């Protein structure tokens, strides 16, 4: 069953799943009908032909015996015996019908039990050794011709009723038809039960998918069917929904924080400008108001730039990567920030081992800059920041260590959340946007890497470790 409101075992399966079950049942029924129909047809043909062969063998054996008796009896006028029974191998006794035809087609003699006018030779003539069927009144007969002797042109027609044979064939057909119908009904019931059992896991997954599509991210595929593949699919669906729930929650939190962060500098700038316009002020007062508004708008521009960077960081997958040197990029960024470090009295030390690869240089540069600016903001004068690069196990490592105030264990899990500010100095920091570290994480993940805060280091001080899967530089 699934978790959340509006679910339960009594709810109906989706229409698509019902259609799938019906199609599966119909397919199984069609296969069963085709297979059993073909099998029953073969059985019918074999049984019916066997019965006809036995009848033919008995008919020809009796006809030859009859002809031999007539030849041995001699005389011009041939007389048929009075017996009216032909006995088959299985003991079945059939009524005998016989006619002797002269060479000109005239009837010489016949048994007296024909229920119809005696058939003319032209109507029943067939080659010797070949049995055939014909009708005589209400009777369906099977007959055969034999010559009385090699020197005589007279022919003997011996026939027996095939009513019993036809009745057996009809009975066999009815029996097989009933067996086929019963098999189809039973097979359909079993197929329906099997398809319901096999698709129960799919039904639960379909219900969860529909609820998620309707916006219910609390739905989960809690039932674990016995089918390993379906069970794995359900687990994957649950993980996907959990990830979606986290992303949606993060998105909502990000939008709320972004709205708040954007509102603050706008409100401050608007308030200062509005206050300046209410009455005449001196040039110094106007300059002070403009300076305040300038700082607010500068913070707003920085915040908007960071938001755009965060939105597209790592999303330019279509941009071709180029060969780069991580240590050289770190050197360039450190040189650019050296003035800011000197003004604050913070020492920037470098331990940059060669680290070549390929990637998006602008994004890697942004990653390093954010880490070094973050370290500078939280490191007091007279302390150090150390940036280090090296290769290890085919991965590029970048480490930024500062001797600042550090991060408490409670704050560490939230460092990479947008707009997060911790306690103490970090909470009162007005120069940062709160988006630098989230951008670092997004860029690292776009390069098949990761960034983490070293919880074993400090406080005081903090250390951030970046691992990047930089693709090897192509050698010509």
Describe the overall structure.
With 476 residues, the chain is α+β, with helices and mostly antiparallel strands. The chain has nine helices and 13 strands. Helices cover 52% and strands 17% of the residues. The model is unreliable at 1-10 (pLDDT under 50).
Task: Give a topology summary.
Elements lengths: L14 H59 L11 E3 L5 E9 L5 E4 L10 H4 L7 E5 L2 E9 L7 E7 L1 H51 L14 H51 L4 H30 L9 E4 H19 L2 E6 L3 E4 L1 H17 L6 E9 L2 E8 L22 H4 L7 H11 L3 E4 L8 E7 L8
Question: What is the gist of this entry?
Answer:
This protein is α+β, with helices and mostly antiparallel strands. It has helices at residues 15-73, 121-124, 163-213, 228-278, 283-312, 326-344, 361-377, 425-428, 436-446, and strands spanning 85-87, 93-101, 107-110, 132-136, 139-147, 155-161, 322-325, 347-352, 356-359, 384-392, 395-402, 450-453, 462-468. A hairpin with an 8-residue loop joins strand 12 and strand 13 (462-468).
